[in-house]
Specification:
mainly beta, single chain, 4-stranded antiparallel sheet, 3-stranded antiparallel sheet
Length: 104
């Protein structure tokens, strides 16, 4: 089941940073499915900057986790651990909308 809704507010339930040979994976886990069609690279800000050319977005099947594929060299793992990540215009499948969500 890809779409599901819960009566709770949309929240980040956890994050993780994984390394791979050509960059970093920053995984954001939500407490419910987000609408993948509404979220794009223009919605992502790392330390106040939009890294659109350095980031690709992937969703898991349930759409309750989003993975940011960050090209190597644009930001280090240590910088990402200490970074403020902001996502704008995020929406769930049942219509809950957040203008802004600060991940960390």
């Amino acid at each position: 089941m890809r779409k599901y809704s819960v009566p709770e507010a949309l929240e980040v339930s956890g994050t993780e940073i994984l390394t791979q040979k050509n960059g970093l994976l920053f995984v954001i886990h939500f407490n419910q499915s987000v609408d993948a069609g509404k979220l794009n690279v223009n919605s992502i800000f790392i330390n106040g900057k939009n890294p659109e050319s350095d980031v690709k977005i992937k969703f898991n099947r349930k759409a309750d986790s989003v993975t940011l594929l960050i090209n190597g060299g644009s930001i280090s793992e240590e910088e990402l651990k200490n970074a403020s990540v902001r996502i704008t215009d995020i929406q769930t499948f049942d219509g809950k909308y957040l203008e802004e969500l600060i991940v960390k």
